[in-house]
Amino acid sequence: MMYTIERPKNFDIAQIFDCGQCFRFNKHESKENTYCGVAFGKYLEITQSENSVDFNCDKETFDTLWYSFLNLDNDYSLYIDSFKDDKTLYTASQFSSGIRILKQDPWETLCSFIISQNNNIPRIKGIIENMSKAYGEKIECGDGIERYAFPTANSLYEAGTDAIFALKTGFRAKYIYDAASKVAVGEFDLNAIFDMPLDEAMQALMTIKGVGPKVASCVLLFGFSKYDAFPIDVWVKKILNNYYSDGMSPHFTGKHAGIAQQYLFYYERCKNNVYL
DNA sequence: GGGCAGGTCTAAG
DNA sequence: CTTAGACCTGCC
After folding, report:
1. Which of A7, A41, A191, A219 is the most buried (most CB within 10 A)?
2. CATH 1.10.340.30 for the A106-224 domain, yes or no
């Protein structure tokens, strides 16, 4: 089964899946120009060529799921144009112009970015895969390869802290359990976050143990499409110090600060030859 | 072997 | 309110 679209402007699967917003998608082992992974309990394979993009699904699944996941309803050239007055940011934007901010599952995003703290990307990915294998629902793809959905908050809550620790999550185990339990018992309503302004949403997320400003802003940006969230990590910090006299730009507090952040982050890491 | 990785918690001033 | 240390683990 395959569904093909005309290749959108500002769309590069390597940039989208390697820019650090998402941990379950990887370059396909054998197929050229293809990335694959699991999201929303479904296995997705995307092949990109110069003028078209192929998806391993029917039109309906594309329309209802992947179109939104890949944020294809936004025109990213408008964001890039709006950064024109800032030389550093504009250079980074053009370099990273194929990035799209994914609309990922809020719970998965929350849990994944808790795992990401003081950690490196290969290990983050490994932990998430093991966690999915152990507590996620099995996905039938018919190709003989076993794949697993990201575990629900409920299943991790039932598994308990020790079991989460056994997945090599380290000191983050108690944080993951805190998040899982609050979501599972309904003490924390993830859906309510969608309706909150940035500050309020940040404060709410930070009531979860192990969620600080950096993790909270990543969750809001990648899981809730709050583009005004501006995650500051070591890489962005470096850019702010090196290229901005007062460490600030109006764009970093603007409506699309998070998009600016992603461009800068990806640009700086590529420049420093960081391979994911 | 010590340092480091998309940080955050905790305990102190 | 700001700031050191500590923290699991795997790979260098």
Report:
1. A219
2. yes
**Two tokens, residue A105:** 């599952």
Distance of C1' in C3 from CA in A12, Å: 42
Task: Verify if strand C has an atom below 7 Å from the CB of A166.
Answer: no
| CA-based nearest residue to A74, from A227, A229, A251, A191 | A227
Cα–Cα distances in angstroms (integers) from residue A101 to residues A18, A33, A261, in the given order = 12, 20, 11
Q: Enter the pTM of the model.
A: 0.97
Residue entry with tokens 């982050």: A265
* C1' of B2 to CA of A222 (Å): 35
CATH code for the part of the protein at A3-74: 3.30.310.260
Catalytic residue among A9, A27, A214, A255: A214
A214 is catalytic: yes
Q: How far is the CA of A209 from the C1' of C7 (A)?
A: 14
Instruction: Outline where A136-171 has alpha helix (H).
Output: 153-159, 161-164
pLDDT at A247: 80
CB atoms within 10 A of CB A33: 15
Q: For B7, which residue's CA is nearest its C1'?
A: A117
3-state DSSP assignment of residue A39: strand
Distance of CA A271 to the CA centre of its chain: 21
Q: What are the average pLDDT values for consecutive 10-residue runs of chain A, which has 276 residues? A: 97 96 96 98 98 98 98 98 97 98 98 97 97 97 94 98 98 98 98 98 98 98 98 92 88 97 95 72
